[in-house]
Write a structure and sequence with these properties.
About 45% of the residues lie in helices and about 10% in strands. It is built from 25 helices and 20 strands. The chain starts with 10 loop residues before the first helix and ends in an 8-residue tail after the last helix.
């Protein structure tokens, strides 16, 4: 017997279709029923590759006693955070207000009449353990509280909604040019500190911080940090670490240790797009480490083989868990990726096994008796090692890497267990298309294409961008998701901002193709019309005609695993102003920075992408030159430059460099042009300031 979620498009929602809980999706009908029956709403938010979401689905949400009580006393709603990041953002902030921490699954209790939360938590076990109460006990206690403590309930909700509303309205601010210089330096110093190697805790890519740290190295700030060394080390940690799949390509979500060794094994599209862009940019600064190029190439091959739909868009994610055999009841974390020492002995020659010990390979393993491969040394891998890794690829996939063009996705656990896989049973792939995440990958591919001069990278990026452009508009409005050819859910601010960036990045990698700029302008017009805040500045998370069910209307400025919408959007506005000569874009960028300057001063650790936008605003550089000259500049690290191809240049010159609203004297040689560009990019911050 299935519940309403059996008809859902979301893989995450469908995973709960056989729960005895009478789940609703978030919709007007569900909210109306909760109000009519005076039932508090139990709202549970997660995503398909979330490990503890999967655990709770199999435990508490599958328990008959819990389901009976839930169905009688609550209106249960399940939400996929990848479908509704706006809801997730609001209620995650409420969880953090109540508990001081966040995470998924996000389980929160709302009053039906106003949707204001009064209690929240993450994972709840069936029975009391891990210092957490049993879930049935929580449900009973909260229903009693809801029925009998009305005065306290109203007071509690009032405090929460006041905090949410206060955080949504930021105090804006103006600064002088000198203060902006100091602010940019403060942001760089903070982000460089954030990614400086630590001796404890998990290791996350944190690319928005890494991106700001890298772009700040060109200023030669006086600092306690060596920015070049810190950024290079982050690149090495990513490209050599167990976070990278050295056999099949692609990056896992994070590692559970400070040594970048043992990953949490899910692979998210958004991480891979950002890491590809960062490694390409790091290479372009002159750090030409072979492991960077290999990791980028391997990730693109994984993307093409396992994560690209026949229509050209990219899938969202692959799970951490997979089945070790078709008769297994539950999947195991990392089963698709790790190696026992006995397997390695069987698959490899003694010479290959000896060389493989350049990776973290031991008889005892480093993950539950098995081995996650992590490189011990940088540099180019030997032919023997590449042969060994290809043998491991064949053992995993059942066919050699040279002959495997496409590896079809397992779309659910049943498909994974019943398909006739020639090698290991793969993890489930969430095949939905998310505009924001596809855009991050398009940007990464476009940058890598420019740096490594690989046409395949640009071809993959262009196909995905064209799919979005041709399929994500319904009745003239841009949409966020696509489920097997069907667009769904109006686009949110991150979709607009990141897709505009992706289009501009495609334009930057091939400036002759002006259609990317034309598309970016059209999307920006819609973004401005429906999401720009005239009163406060910056962009709301949701459009003016799709935010009726939100208790507050937020403007995203904080970076998490992905960059903030407003940070990206403001940088886009500067780029558009340079490329179109339309200063209205620059006015909006200035208003956007003004709206968020207070938080930049108060909490620079929260918003590296806003500092990246400030860098664009202070140091943006327009280069007008010939195709030949611009093609020579594209592979270089010029993080605030835009290119316009023109043959209309002053006699005897090779190009014109413009700084904001003024242009320098015409460059008389390629060397002179590059010198002007580099000096222009550094003009906003002096080395001693």
């Amino acid at each position: 017997m299935t519940n309403r979620l059996a008809e859902a498009k979301s893989l995450y929602l469908r995973k709960h279709a056989e729960n005895p809980i009478d789940w609703w999706s978030w919709c007007d009908e569900a909210l109306a029923v909760a109000r009519a029956q005076n039932k508090p709403i139990f709202l549970s938010i997660g995503y398909s590759s979330c490990h503890w979401c999967t655990v709770m689905e199999g435990e508490a949400f599958s328990d008959i006693a819990i389901a009976d009580y839930m169905n009688a006393n609550y209106l249960p709603i399940k939400v996929d955070r990848e479908e509704r990041p706006d809801l997730d953002s609001i209620y995650m902030q409420a969880l953090q207000l109540m508990s001081g921490q966040g995470g998924w699954p996000l389980n929160i209790f709302l009053s039906p009449e106003d949707l204001v939360p009064f209690y929240a938590g993450t994972y709840f076990p069936v029975d009391p353990r891990y210092g957490r109460p049993g879930f049935l006990q929580v449900l009973q206690t909260l229903r009693r509280y809801y029925d009998t403590e009305k005065a306290d309930l109203q007071q509690r909700k009032a405090l929460i909604i006041e905090s949410l509303l206060t955080s949504a309205v930021l105090q804006d601010g103006t600064t002088t040019e000198l203060e902006d210089h100091k602010l940019l330096r403060q942001g760089w110093e903070t982000s460089t500190g954030v990614i400086t190697p630590s001796q404890s805790g998990n290791s996350f890519p944190m690319i928005p911080y890494t991106e700001l740290a890298l772009r700040g190295t060109r200023f030669n700030f006086e600092s306690r940090y060596d920015g070049n060394q810190v950024c290079t080390q982050r690149g090495l940690d990513l490209a050599l670490g167990g976070i990278y799949d050295h056999v099949g390509g692609g990056f896992h979500r994070y590692t559970v240790d400070p040594t970048w060794t043992v990953p949490h094994f899910e692979k998210m599209l958004y991480d891979n797009g950002q890491i590809v862009e960062f490694l390409a940019s790091l290479w372009s600064t002159g750090v030409e480490e072979p492991a960077f190029e290999r990791a980028v190439a391997g990730t693109v091959l994984w993307l093409k083989r396992e994560m690209t739909a026949p229509e050209g868009y990219f899938y969202a994610a692959q799970d951490a868990d997979s089945f070790s055999e078709s008769t297994a009841v539950e999947p195991e974390e990392g089963a698709f990726y790790v190696w026992s020492y006995s397997e390695l002995q069987q698959l490899l020659t003694p010479e290959e096994l000896t060389e493989l010990e350049q990776f973290t390979v031991t008889p005892n393993g480093n993950f539950e008796g098995r081995n996650v491969l992590q490189r011990r040394y940088s540099g180019k891998l030997s032919a023997t090692l590449e042969t060994a890794l290809n043998k491991l690829f064949t053992a995993r996939y059942g066919v050699s890497s040279e002959s495997l063009e496409t590896f079809p996705p397992a779309r659910n656990n049943q498909e994974a267990k019943t398909a006739n896989w020639p090698g290991r049973i793969p993890s489930v792939t969430d095949t939905k298309m998310i505009v924001a995440w596809n855009s991050l990958m398009i940007s990464g591919l476009a940058r890598a294409a420019g740096v490594f001069q690989e046409p395949l990278y640009l071809e993959l990026a262009a196909r995905a961008a064209n799919f979005i452009w041709e399929n994500q508009f319904v009745d003239g409005r841009f949409h966020r998701l696509n489920y097997q050819g069907e667009p769904s859910v109006l686009a949110q601010s991150e979709d607009y901002a990141l897709f505009i960036k992706a289009l501009l990045d495609l334009q930057a990698s091939n400036p002759e193709q002006k259609q990317w700029l034309e598309k970016a302008i059209a999307i920006q017009d819609e973004f401005n019309e429906f999401l720009w805040s005239v009163e406060l500045g910056g962009y709301y998370n949701t459009s003016s005609d799709s935010s009726q069910d939100l208790i507050v209307r937020e403007r995203s400025y904080a970076d998490n695993a992905t960059p903030s919408a407003n940070g990206i959007a403001i940088a886009n506005l500067v780029r558009l102003a340079l490329l179109t000569d339309n200063l209205d874009y620059l006015d909006l960028a200035e208003l956007g920075l003004k709206a968020f300057r207070s938080v930049m001063h108060r909490a620079p650790q929260a918003c590296p992408s806003l500092f990246t936008a400030l860098d664009w605003y202070r140091n943006s550089t327009l280069i007008r030159s010939t195709t030949e000259q611009i093609n020579a500049l594209i592979p270089k690290y010029l993080p605030v430059a835009v290119f316009v191809i023109t043959s209309d240049l002053p006699e005897g010159s090779v190009g014109l460099v413009c700084q904001g609203l003024k242009c320098l004297a015409p460059a008389e040689s390629a060397e002179h042009l590059l010198q002007q560009v580099q000096e222009s990019q550094n003009r906003g911050v002096g080395s001693g300031e």
